[in-house]
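Below: protein 1.
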Amino acid sequence: MNELVGMYFSPWTERARWALDYHKVPYKYVEYTTLLGQPLLRLRAGKPFGKVSVPLLITPNERVNDSFEIAVYSDQMSEQEPLVPPAHFAEIKNWTESAELALYSARLRATRRIQASSEALADRLPGYTPNLLRKAFVPMAYIATGYILRKYQLEDDDDEKLLKNMDEFFDKANNALSGRRFVFENLSFADIVIATAMQAITPVEDKYIYLGLPSRKCMCEPALEMKYSSLIKWRDSVYEQYR
């Protein structure tokens, strides 16, 4: 059985899950825990040194790292219309790469807000943490968020600059989808990239990705939510029909 290691609230993990589910590729989902899960992730990845990250798809024959590569792998495992059609391969890869700075920026802004909220920190603890112990484990979540802030820091991480990075990507997405149902002729991984990136503005409904209220509040960007209300409606429609 394939295994997908990821973080349930991560847009990168959600992209990978969407591609696998779209093509009905079977897999067992394994939640990754920051810091504590690092040794096991290295073992699963077969990579004792160097950079390791999630999502990571482990198949009987190979390890597929990166959501774009997982989407390509999913296409190869199915006879359905591909999410990364050859005719648009380079363009879709470009969409995937252009979303990175916006998502890195969003992660820093949201993580700073989460680190400042004991309720949000408790909310980010693993699901198996007993409710009675969540308050006691908040310091552990604080350390984990500090690790994320250090690991994924950007050269210019001023809050206004981070917001500008996000605005530029969503403006590009808004223009590409203006009056259109999809970026290209049919649903593609480019649409999935944009739809999942919208978590950076306002999270999708809990029935798709469950978030406690404290975490949800920390992930919202009111200024962008107002500016890109039509893009949010598009995201909700794509989720309703294809997720």
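Below: protein 2.
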Amino acid sequence: MARKNPNATGEPPIPEAARPAYEAVADRIDGFCREHLNEEYRMMCRKLTGILARKRPSPLTRGKPESWASGIVRVVGGANFLGDPSQPLHLKMTDIDKAFGVSEATGSTKATEIRKLLKIQTLDPEWTLPSRMEDNPLAWMIQVNGLIVDARDLPREYQEEAYRMRLIPYIPADRQSEDAKE
């Protein structure tokens, strides 16, 4: 059987067995993000939903789509300090649960299940929104000659090597150049 190419977002395809569950969860997340969050959160939540759908067996096929949607938004929100009222975009985790029509216990349980399954930690760079990457210290800490250093403070050639090795998300000077053009 031939393997399908990744979709337009670059993500691998969703297996047919998990597609109905994936779509049910993703549809709920899309609506929630349009109403309460933004496109950046929507894309990150979709990425997480896709990863869960591709697990074998997919956990999304067990349980209600609303429960999974709440757990997924909680995980991505937690990685980006969504619950912190000092942030420009903030929302209580319990408000996420209410919007999806699930109990706080259900939302919390699903989020914990997802974090354990995918080993997602606080400040996990993989789940940090692109607009918040600069503020995530874990995205920039690398080991050089046995010392932990902030890659942003290193010479460009070290940054280029760290980027090539996928140790940092981008080369800071390049991002600043792109921002200046806009």
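The longest strand covers residues 141-144.
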